[in-house]
## 1
Amino acid sequence: MTPYIPILSRREILGRWGGGFGSLALAQLLGLEALGDESKTAPPEFNGGLHHPAKVRRVIQLFMNGGASPMDTFDYKPELARLHGQMIGPKEKPEGFTAPAGAVMKSPFEFKQYGESGRWVSSVFPELSKRVDELAFLMAMTTKTNVHGLGSYLMNTGFILPGFPCMGAWISYALGSLTENLPAFVVLPDARGLPYNQRANFSAGFLPAKHQGTVIQAATSSQAVPDLFADPKYPFASGVADSEGIALLQHMNRQHAADHPADSRLEARIASCELAAKMQLSAPEAFDLSRESEITRKGYGLDNKVTEDFGRRCLLARRLIERGTRFVQVWSGAQGAVLNWDNHANIQTELPIMANSVDRPISALLDDLKARGLMEDTLLIWTTEFGRTPFAQASMGRDHNGGTFVTWLAGAGIKPGVAHGRSDDLGYQTAEGKTYCYDLHATILHLLGIDHTKLTVRNAGIDRRLTDVHGHVIQPILA
Amino acid sequence: MRNLIPRGQFVRLAAILAPFLGLGGMLANASDDPALVAFFETKIRPVLVEHCQKCHGSELPTPKGGLQLDSRNGLRKGGDSGPVVVVGKPEESPLYQAIAHSGEVSAMPPKTKLTPSVVADFHRWIAQGAVDPRTEPASPAKGGTPSTDWWSLRPLKRPEVPSLGEVGTQWSRTAIDRFIYLKLTDAKLQPAPESDRRTLIRRVSYDLTGLPPSPQEVNAFVRDPDPNAYELLIDRLLASSRYGERWARHWLDLIHFADTHGFEHDVLRPNAWRYRDYVIESFNVDKPWPRFIQEQLAADVLCKNEPRLKSALGFLGAGPYDQSAAATAPMAFEYLDRDDLVTQTMGAFVSTTANCARCHAHKFDPISQEDYFSLQAVFAGIGKGDISYDEDQGVEQQRSHWKSVLAACDQEQTDLLFSPENRSLVAAWEQSRSAMNAWIPLDVDVFVSSGGADLKREPDGSILSGGTRPDKETTTLTVTSRLSEIHGLRLDVLADPSLPLSGPGRMDNGNLHLSEFEAMVFRPGQPKPEKLKFRRATADWNQVDWGIARAIDGNPATAWGIYPKVGESHHAVFEFEQPLKLSSDARLVVVLKQLHGGGHILGRLRLSATSSPGETSIALPALADSALQIPIDQRSAEQNKALASAVLKVHAEVEIAKLPAQVKVYGAASMAENDRGLIAFASPRIVTILNRGELDKPGEQVVAGSLSAVTALKARFELSDPSNEAARRVALADWIADPNNPLTWRSIANRVWQSHFGRGLCDTPNDFGRMGGLPSHPELLDWLAAELRDQGGSLKHLHRLICRSSVYRQASIHREEAAAIDPENRLLWRMNRQRLDADAFRDTVLAVSGRLDLTMGGVGIALFQSRPGPQLTPTLDYSAFDWDSPGAGRRSIYRVVWRSIPDPLMEALDFPDASLLAPIRGFSVSPLQTLALLNNNFVLNQSGHLASRVKASQATTADQIREAFRLTLLRDPTPEESSRFVAIADKHSLAAACRLLLNCNEFLFVE
């Protein structure tokens, strides 16, 4: 049985607490405003922020599943060329390596400097490299594990163990949605499959279930939102039958609520039914990419097999945040031995496949967000669960390495063209300006107007935070 | 997660400000009136926190005016100019004057004015006594350890049952009611009237079985003239097997049980369900609570007489398992895995957050890091995986007996080999051997070498291999036999002077490797040969690690060898699984695969057959064979040993093969088998305190133990053999199950209460520490805990007491005046309305549609389609499941719960994340949930079945609608409802109307 929820009707709360608090109970049950409802009484300059003015109202996170190699993308390490072939790595297999460390391996890709900022980028990102001046790099991200499952949990939830809410769920809980017509937190996994940990990466943990990521299979699903409409094989639940039926259902439920007064849960169910109907009307439009111009579709790479899937999901992410979804997570790569960023066997052949699939879509997304003015209040994050070893695995692959990896951010509140932190000369460990997921999460929450130390929920005796007991806002990358 | 509104609102506010507040400050004094406490918590404290503490907090170096409003003492003490609250007199209280902008004190807060309603709240609060439940210290303990003087840790004594006046006594049916009534009257509250019988039967059916009553059961109960009808109903429900299924779900939630690993490789645990069945059965038989605890932690040691209870060890394996980390990062894995088990065990059994002491002493509760790591040490020797066992004790004993005989054969333990029983076995064998039919040589018609050796038939009928020695060889022989029934074949490999070192192999060292020995029979009129299976192979001599069994294991990479006993003949016997009936026109083909390479091929061979059955024809080692050639009294001890070993080994194997196969449960014990093979530690891992919880900062070594805060019990276990891991688990089980462990009894009594009222007397059922909630009725909780402990640990006894009580029978109706005093209904002035949880919803839909399948137990039902994923984790498609397939109507407890790929319908209805210990089911409402309930294939499919069901029994639409109402809502429709539902049914089909009934709040909520 569900726990008892003390019952105060909306009217009653309105009467007792005044308007500001009155709608809170209902809105919170519905997950519309969540904590953000306080913004209704907060000064307008808070811009939806819970604790201070927000610079960001919506977030798109691009997650490179598998551990994108830093020294073959953004972290130029000339020292690797000098030491190429030397056995200077750890003698014993470190925890989480899948094999003993091999010889130092230089990057097989050519690096060049780009833009005013002079960022080094390898040849795997020909488009993105032209836009480095818009990005702020964290060059010394680090993690606590070399294992995919644990690493993915850490980057998503701030804990290496399962059962904790992910960042999207926290943000949904704290700020709710900007629209009643779409879910607050949407996850767009790779068409080839779910990442490590499957859906547990998108879990609401101990937060109410409604804050979990709504997972949408953009390529295959006929429905914008799961169960948005009945399967056509049940005609009695479609079309007019559906709308007339819901009208009667609402009538029944209103009568029931009147006979059982002062229970906000009953009223919330009635309200949620109205919202569901609204969602039925507007969600399909949000997911209809055919409404985009040919130029836009091409820009995102929808005309090319290599970029089609990731491009489609980047474009969809833009449409969703444009329409009020608060947080969209776009995954590149499924779990598995190939076709993700977990390039154990051969960096030279495996990495470009992945890089090619995202380079144009991400670049288009950056351009598009800017052109539409969405960058004014949107944050774009590119990250992964850990880095890769400077030592070869077998002859041409790289193993897991939590020591150091790269993340970049762009958009509202971000200082463009900067880099924070530095890895050591091999790119094996961090050298300075080390940042953990806690710091990244704290920074993202900060931009959303949330003090990460204050967003807590008590679970099993502990006031839990996204940032555990850690986290510092990374000031050097903030505008 | 607390889902409390308006307190929830406070919790959120307070939670946001918690770091400034000092969390201990959230707790009330048990003695305070809960209604007033609730008023303070919801109306006063949030305002103090939000508007006052920034300047008047104890954390500040110089609180403004010397006034600290973040603790009771601070508030009582007042500021530099004296007290700020005059209890009972708001107008005279400077605090009130300040916020009301009346009197001479400075108006507060300085820049804003609080709303009139807030000011009015403060007026009321001070007028009613300024109850302030906040305790000291407000901040985490600095240096010192938090005190063990805490409600949950105090020794459990049975409190006096309050005596009441006439009205109260009349109202009270049970001791429970007296505790409740006393608090109600203290708060000037009256209990609600008793529910009608229809409401009662629905409520109690859900609480005890998770299923609704049928319309017939409702009718019978409503009309039952028996004054004990309700009591009998309770007994009937408690006796139903549905009870165990319901309660198993509560328990499995609590210990994050699932059917898969979780993490990166989220694969199925095909044997996890046996634990689920164990839990169901345990609740159904009302297993005494201490026994339930002990079995789950140490059934392997404590239940020697009932080996089938090893399924209880599934408790230890209930949680997630990171197969990838276990393989590549074992140190971190084991540490975190033990942590999870400690958290689960202490949360489930004693409602304690021991894991908070992993990195440092618990900030709020008296739990040291040593306590925590002592608990880790309890689990420092277990392996997680499948545990194999016999369900029957007799079988287990036989298996163990024959295994010891096998060991005796290997180690030549003469005491056992020559036991009277075994002597007579060997003697009997010898008798049957002497009666054995001879080995009849087979006539080889055709022989072919695939490797290109030159095969020649010798005068004695044997085949000699000569010519160029092939690297590998397959010899195929077509033979006939005079025998019409063959039980076994014998292969002689013979020494021959033409072979290296006289053979019998052609390898330079005389060895040979027989990879596979295969036989097939061609019968006339049959196009394909019939491949023959062997039951057993024996040989007179086996090279170490190259035993004869490898020649019939179907694996060409393994083989039989005879090194170093070269230069002499050897033989092997292959016994058919079924005797081979051979007509004269049938042809037997024997294939000898010699695929090892390097010229390990047979030199000279001969085949023969016997019609004697079974064990009599086994191949014997030379020494044993020599014994048979001489009279018994002339045999040497060595000969006797060899003979007994050879005979008993085969006999023991035969006996073991006859036993029913062992079963498996996924769990943990001293030994378990998982993807990495057999997991068994030679001795438990050494566990040390870890500085800040970090693996690379080890400190002092600890011994197995538990919480020092339970002062009645020894916190460090004194074990005679500390290296015995199981003894550690036994010790913890005993510690938890001890009658003097106050946490254990309070914990489970509170959970039982929660299952009936939707909320525990303590509303943080997994945390009875200072971060948790305080019990609303501490004396009642203690009385229930003592009752449970003293009445044999019977949960059903407690259910019976609670269900019979007047407080439980109350109506759930809202009363404005009562809500004004106790808006959260902590004092239970009425029954709580509860929404069906995911499992109850699904089971109810099946029950009303007529599709509920009450088959109990066994392998879980997968409510999805599964196909291989890119890695080990499969891809699941819940929407593709066929709801009319067999098993689709089983109760939800039997569903396969895939940890990281949840069922969307169940998840929408707040089924918990199976990686999370879930002592409370959450409650949420969202448009996505609404859509799932309206459009999920399960609901739509069942709407159709419900429609068919009522159509089958009723002719007119109106009657069908009435029947559907009776099934779902247990009542008749009103005339208006009837006409509207008939209209929908007539226009859009009856299923459309049924879908609405499955979605309406009256169906989803229980009064």
## 2
Amino acid sequence: MVDLTKGYPDKGYKIIGKPVPLMDSRAKVMGQALYTDDIRLHNPLTIKILRSPHASANILSVDVSEALALKGVKGVLTGADFKNTFGVLTISKDEPALARDVVRYEGEPVAAVAAETAEIAARALDLIKVDYALTDGVFDSRKALKPTEHPLHPELGRKNNLHKKVVQEFGDMAQGFEAADVVVEKRFRFASINHAFTEPHATQVEIDNKGNITVYSATQVPHYLHMAMAEVLEIPEHRIRIIKPHLGGGFGGKSDPFPHEMIAAKFALDLGRNVKLKFSREEVFFSHHGRHQTDLTMKLGFSKDKGITALGLDTLIDGGAYGSFGIVTTYYNGVLLQGPYKVPNFRFHVERLYTNKPMCGAMRGHGGVNPRFASEVLLDMACAETGLDPAETRLKMIHKENTLTTNEYRVTSVGLRNGLTEAIRRTNWHDKHDKLPFGKGIGVACGFFISGSALPIHWNKLPASTVRITIDHDGGVTVFSGATDIGQGSDTMLAQMAAEVLGQPLENVKVISADTRTTPVDLGSYSSRVTFMAGNASRNAAIRMRRLLVQAACELMEMIPPKYDRPEPPEDFFRQGGRKPDFEKGFLGANPDYTDGFIFEDGLIRSEKHNASVTFLEAVEKALEQEGILQVSGTYRAPKMGGKFKGSGAGLSPSYSFTAFIVEVTVDPETGFIKVDKATCAHDCGFPLNPLAVNGQIEGCIHMGLGQALMEEMIYDNGATQNPSFLEYKIPSAFEQPEVDIVPTYSDDSEGPFGAKEAGEGILAPIIPAIANAVYDAVGIRLTQLPMRPDRVVAALEREQKGGAKA
Amino acid sequence: MSLLMQNFDYHRPTSLEDLTVLVSDCRKGGRAFAFSAGGTDIIPQLKSDTLHPDCLISLGGLKDLNHIEKRGNRLIIGSLTTLHDLANNDLIRGYLPALAHAAHKVASPQIRNRATIGGNIMVDNRCIYINQSEINRECHAPCFKADGDVCHLVKSAKRGDDILCQARFVSDTAPILLLLGARIAVMGANGTREMALNDLYLRDGIDNRSLEVGDIITAIEVGIPENDTALHYEKLTIRNALDFPSLGVGVRVTDGAVSVALTGLNTLPGLFHAKPGDFDNFDDMIDHICAEAMDFAKTYNQDFFPRHYRKNMIPVFIRRGLDKIIKDKS
């Protein structure tokens, strides 16, 4: 067995930093884990959704009478049954549960049937008569900019299909380009891609005799679903309980409230029956919410001495029919370029357009992946033109610790320099780059990502995450958290926090998560926020619990309990533009030190000073005497940060992760096939809480990045999804996964739980430009369009041979 | 759209006699029927509603049709031999390694465990506009293969024109079998007959096999090539697993003569021969056969790879096959 802790500092932790298999992995492998569709409610009705075969049409009429008359059909819903539209962002609640009057994409839900069996429901769908009048659709973001009398969303009052436009400018662009030794510019194009998670969407709803519903749903954000559902159904939240069962992958694709969830709940409420619904793979592709198709022109100024002098980009992103997370995506297409290097003069202009295609939304690396490709390719070009080594140049340019970016992000821990240095050494970079035979290449690229969005997408003053911990009379610890384990392992992470602080073996800690009735509010699993935010909350709760137990132990040992000072974070960590963040009262402090003069181990609580101990159980019993239950909560809220300009909150995070990839490829110049031979990854996730889980995320990101780089794309023909299946939508197979070398890389984040930062998303972006840069090293072509299909490689090589006509 | 299995009667005869009776009963009752061998091609069609038999007859119970044997200098392959067995059988690997390789290149282990050689040479022609579920087909006007009167690949085509359905031929095993001059045994209402595999394939993407309704292929027979012969199959797919061939090229070299068989490029397989005496030199011969093969290709944008790329890869794959054969020999 490989020792996965090798290369990381030993901090004396017992659970933290150890490779721990995820708590639910055995159940999943054995087929015992219940996913949403595995749950067996009593006598449920089956729901089927009728979807529009047209991408753009007016609905003249919907006749459901024959469907309703079919024996076994219990109910039919149409757009007229839902008054309120919804959306994950309060500022773009533009999606109806069922289309009313107009359909905006092929596959949009138009009507739904609840019936005693799936077969009856399917037959009933055939009996619904929808009279459509086809209208001219818009399928291209450039065309969507053009004036029209009939925009997709007339409620915005615009005369074109613009959804959101963001322009931000910092510094002096003209001066920046002036100061550059070289200016490079290119247009890049990116296909839309799908998350392709294993478990299709599914929802089941159970109703009790008082009309309260329990919604089991494959969702990343029970809390947002809870709020959206209450609003759409016009019932109070307390009548709704959302439970997320085991979940088979999200990657951002289950982080919106969905029409089918509203439909299922509405049927349960209307009919007083339990209901169930699941998607086919095709329906998953229709629902999409994947990465935006992107058309991006970027210009980079580079100086041999000063690094990047200016960076500007103009971008169109194709949002599809509805808003989803699109406003956030629009910002992220710009702001996430503020790392991993200093960009002193910076301008971005991003526009999101509505088109008659399935909507796009959040997907792993949200909004940052495509611009990262462009910037890392341009940087490689600038290095080539100035004769600098692209790896050493990057190494020099990486942000220093505790700096403020041009757009006033507070960058605290940075551990990438050591990692990239080691990656350069391990790959023999200097012996290979620019020295390999034609067809073989090596490339480098770096990335940067948020560890959770500091600001909630629904403005409120609640903590970003709250965790409750209880201890039973027999010493069993239970962690209650709204954080959503979507396969990334957050339950295991939460348990590790509590187990470490309370000195308990991991198996003594149980986690109950993602249930709006029993767990405190957490904003959900998106933007790589869970480890940092819920992790800190769990740690803080465990520290509070530890104090109660120390108190009880001291009473039993007749000792004076320790006095706890509220630790103050060191000033320079929070300084920003001369302002000190203002911490809320209950804030426990960044990474509070819980050394209290006691050691929790082997079932004992021992005083370090005095030769005395009590058992953990004795302390628990003593502590229980007072209230009968032993329960605490812990919270996390991000420090106050950010500049004083409009849109300064986008991309603000309490900490940022850094990644570097060195990729080696073989390019077949005749067929254009790119084979990724090896990927060496250095990812600064702060201190890795669970190296096994971190490595899993790295391998997964490589696989997913490989897909976007080489083959994945949503193909549309006038709005019709042409490849809504895993046969025609090409995800790399195991054959394509390269050899992976993971360089132990770390920093000690002063605010992350036990020093940790994110490891789920930031890794994805740089693998893609690293492949492109390796292709350049191999055969001398710059690929500017994803996926880098073999035919595009061949075409670029032909252009190159013809005398380097513009790629 | 529901992807629910449709209703049909299901039969699984265990002898050819029972099968004959079943087929004749269906005929008499005017009931449409379809055969299923491994089911890997037909079950998705039933689920996506492109096929509506009243009766599905599984051939899986016909154990007699699952065998591989050597008779003199010929190999007889029962039509129900799975692709897994074909790829791993000692006789096939020993005498026809290119066929074992081609069988191994089909889809995935799970599919090769079910799919049969008979099914693979009979696999229905495919098009991105028809091999879709119902809702997606509804989005476009019904095409020829969906009893409509347009072709989304040849936009100008109208039913009644000479332009036929362009759904493409995708069998991975056919090229090598054709290069081996395979013959097939067919059992039908009037008994058993034999024919060349090459005569099985027709030009129309809809009615693309020359069998009568009710005919089944019982066996495939190929001659064991002499020592002067070598074959190779090369397949173009973006992934090294799972996919139908975007292009498949079989190459045979016999005593200097070269034959090429193509799949994935037209409504039927292509087969071309050239012998050295007709050309000034080897390169001319290869250029000629490449040009013929490229002429034959009727690629449309119905695949992951664009049409021009697939066409341009034909000579690349032919030359690679030849290189491989020459390299293996030396």
